[in-house]
Amino acid sequence: MFADLPLPLLLIVFAVAAAAVIAASIRAMHLADTIADRTRMGEALAGGVILGAATSLSGVVVSVTAASGGDASFAMSNAVGGIAVQTLFLALADMLWRGTNLEHAAAEPANLFQAVMLIVLLAFPVLAASGPDVAILSVHPVSVILFLSYLYGLHLSAAVSNDPMWEPVRTRDTREDVPDTEDEADKSARGPAMVFVVLVVIMGLCGWVISQVGGTFITRFGLSSSLVGALLTAVVTSLPELVTTVVAVRKGALQLAVGGIIGGNTFDTLFLVFSDVAYTKGSIYHAVGLTDLYWLATGLLMTAVLLGGLVLRQREGPARIGIESVMLIAIYSSAVAVELFA
Questions:
Q1: Annotated domain spans of the chain
Q2: Average pLDDT by consecutive 10-residue portion of the chain (342 residues)?
Q3: Maximum CA extent, the chain
């Protein structure tokens, strides 16, 4: 369907799909904020679960489509490359927030726990890739463990959000998570939720289009799957996270912004579970290359740095952003250089 399209038309299709994902994600961000207020879920949990999963759907479609087509590297690099670039988006958001360091102002126990949860989930693929090549019905046992751990982590995240055992020190720069209006919590969330579901479907369909165009680039121009996955489709399907993060920061919904990135990254680890199921040639963890594992390690390192920033809560750093933001930019830039020139 896409393989025979001329390059200009192929680029137009790619751009339209990307634009549709971005437009849908902007609307989804506002709806997620409304749903958080009306259900009393809280911005951090809504950002991590509802918004994070929704804006990641186009990416999961790309990885699953690639895996079902037998391209394990494309599937893996799209997943872990997206985690890395989305973490970078928080550094960019830190530049836009004109107050103190973003990680200081967005103090929230739920975000801290989800960052820890993300590190744990990212460790599972490392264990699978470095361990025995075992597959039951073409699925590695680690994929099952990862999926169950994600579900249990969501349960614990809700518990941390609803009944935190500790609270961050409140300073004059700390932003509170409060409803946009006092009567918002008394309204029904059904209407916004229905529109939200429609937007999720649109983003999923656009993800399929992006995966087809990305696969065409690989075959037509002889590009490496890792390059296309980590630096093309991962970045494009991650643009909703960038847009929603910027919009959330400008609205002052800082917990939603940070929670959306961390929660989206947590959901992105399920890309590997779904891809492992779709990949019928055995364990996907043993079918990928070292470059794909390098991007996995990059995402793991960037998450650890972000967690350190959330705990440290530095008010000001170099160039009016936190030191963790500087480190995130440096780590990601190094990974791109390795991908392009190593």
A1: 7-341
A2: 84 92 82 76 63 78 94 96 94 80 77 93 96 93 96 88 78 62 62 84 90 92 93 90 83 79 89 96 95 96 93 69 88 95 82
A3: 59
